[in-house]
Task: inverse folding
């Protein structure tokens, strides 16, 4: 049983740290509902400052494109509404969430949504991957981008498909019946290796025993 609803998102930015004055230049997000990628959110964002040649080479986003894009104050209230109270997920969520909080903070908005990281999850679920950069990891897992890497919506969609791949991997490798968000979040906090494996086996056994009990006692309520 997949997580009922998640928002998977990605930002392209003008630099590495909001504390150094870097800003979001593109938002991409998808709503993952009952294991299906549904509604999408995408927008360029005028950062109010020029982006470097390095950022343009990396993303394909030019200053000319950003000159006609909406400002952060126009885009981020709509993006905050898109998030609602759903859990949020990103590849290296610490990076993207720092920009999310910075941009929202400029507008007097907040976001306390629970958040999880596919980078951390993949290090525990896909230990044989050669590297955990999104493009390398996606290729290892058989996930092709729907667009160019380092464009926000393509990266968000690939991250969503990676999340679904990891759910299936947990079901196949450990016999888990459910992969709810709290389970995935807890998994990212465990020490890699034997601790992860033992915890997943225990969780699968617990789920299977619960399913058997409900089958034997269909009318039971605690």
Result:
């Amino acid at each position: 049983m997949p997580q009922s609803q998640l928002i998977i998102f990605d930002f392209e930015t003008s630099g590495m740290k909001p504390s150094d004055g870097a800003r979001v230049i593109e938002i991409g997000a998808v709503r993952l509902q009952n294991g299906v990628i549904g509604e999408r959110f995408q927008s360029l964002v005028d950062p109010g400052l020029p982006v470097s040649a390095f950022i343009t080479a990396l993303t394909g986003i030019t200053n000319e494109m950003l000159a006609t894009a909406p400002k952060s104050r126009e885009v981020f209230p709509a993006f905050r509404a898109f998030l609602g109270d759903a859990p949020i997920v990103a590849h290296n969520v610490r990076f993207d969430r720092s920009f999310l909080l910075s941009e929202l903070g400029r507008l007097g908005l907040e976001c306390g949504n629970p958040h999880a990281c596919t980078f951390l999850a993949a290090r525990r679920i896909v230990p044989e991957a050669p590297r955990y950069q999104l493009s390398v990891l996606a290729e290892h897992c058989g996930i092709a981008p729907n667009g160019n890497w380092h464009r926000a919506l393509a990266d968000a969609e690939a991250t969503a498909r990676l999340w679904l791949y990891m759910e299936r991997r947990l079901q196949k490798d450990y016999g888990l019946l459910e992969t709810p968000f709290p389970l995935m979040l807890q998994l990212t906090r465990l020490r890699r290796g034997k601790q992860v494996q033992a915890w997943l086996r225990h969780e699968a056994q617990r789920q299977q025993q619960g399913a058997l009990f409900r089958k034997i006692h269909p009318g039971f309520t605690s």
About this structure: The beta strands are 5-13, 24-33, 36-44, 88-90, 115-117. The mean pLDDT is 95.
